[in-house]
Amino acid sequence: MSVKIVQFPCLQDNYGFLVRDEQSGAVAAIDAPDPHVILAQLTALGWTLSCVLTTHWHADHAGGNALLRDATGARIFGPREIARHSPLDVPVDDADEIMLGATRIQVLNTGGHTLEHVSYYLPSEDVVFVGDTLFALGCGRVFEGTFPQMWESLCRLMALPDRTDVYCAHEYTQANARFASRWAGAPHIERRFAEVAELRRRGVPTVPTQIGIEKATNPFLRVAELFPDMAPAAAFEKLRTAKDHFTG
């Protein structure tokens, strides 16, 4: 890989990510859930922050932008919705490209959780940072957008190569597995639930996952299989609504 990715826990269940282009030394933070933890990681690594790539406006993603910019001079990239809540230097949207040194980062519009949520895809590295759009064995709540919009965003992510590593912003996998177990229906899915349980028992992150793994085991990406008589967007709405009310 031409980049190095460092992942670390933040807040209650967030992950922070630092991405370093090995050729130039340029460093990006993906979101800013806890700026103090991010600054401590930068100091320990001896890295200098170049930019913050923000996925959406929620405080556990954009709340540290101001402090990081003040402390490091890093430029803040993100969807325009960010500007209502925190500093924003460079607005981005679907099909925009960002250069982190020699590494090209594509912006994907993955709205639905928030209206203008974006993901950051590194095609040369087979890596995507998805914020709160897609989770291991789950997906984000539809807070501001519509269910068809969120389904379109998930389809955009499903179109990436199966080998793509998916860096979700939260450690929700074991909780997601409790809901997903209702829709298992295949031994390989049950095996994944067991693997997740063992990883969490050992305190090991379940992030990153991969697009291919999610397409095979995540119920929100399997709605055409689970509800073959429904239009996929309608089936997604049915399943996401059921998850919203799930208390298991």
From TrEMBL:
Family statement drawn from the similarity comment of this UniProt entry: Belongs to the metallo-beta-lactamase superfamily. Glyoxalase II family.
Name this protein carries in UniProt: Hydroxyacylglutathione hydrolase
Cofactor(s) the record lists: Zn(2+)
One GO molecular-function entry: zinc ion binding
Protein origin, superkingdom: Bacteria
Residue ranges of coiled coil: none
Keywords for the protein's UniProt record, in alphabetical order: Hydrolase, Metal-binding, Zinc
The protein's role, per its UniProt record: Thiolesterase that catalyzes the hydrolysis of S-D-lactoyl-glutathione to form glutathione and D-lactic acid.
Cofactor binding description: Binds 2 Zn(2+) ions per subunit.
Domain Metallo-beta-lactamase: 13-170
Binding-site residues for Zn(2+) 1, renumbered to this chain: 56, 58, 113, 132
Catalytic activity: an S-(2-hydroxyacyl)glutathione + H2O = a 2-hydroxy carboxylate + glutathione + H(+)
Residue sites binding Zn(2+) 2 per the record: 60-61, 132, 170
HAMAP family (alphabetical): Glyoxalase_2
EC annotation from Swiss-Prot or TrEMBL: 3.1.2.6
SMART domains, sorted: Lactamase_B
Oligomer status and interactors: Monomer.
Pathway note: Secondary metabolite metabolism; methylglyoxal degradation; (R)-lactate from methylglyoxal: step 2/2
Gene Ontology BP annotations: antibiotic catabolic process; methylglyoxal catabolic process to D-lactate via S-lactoyl-glutathione
Gene3D superfamilies: Ribonuclease Z/Hydroxyacylglutathione hydrolase-like (3.60.15.10)
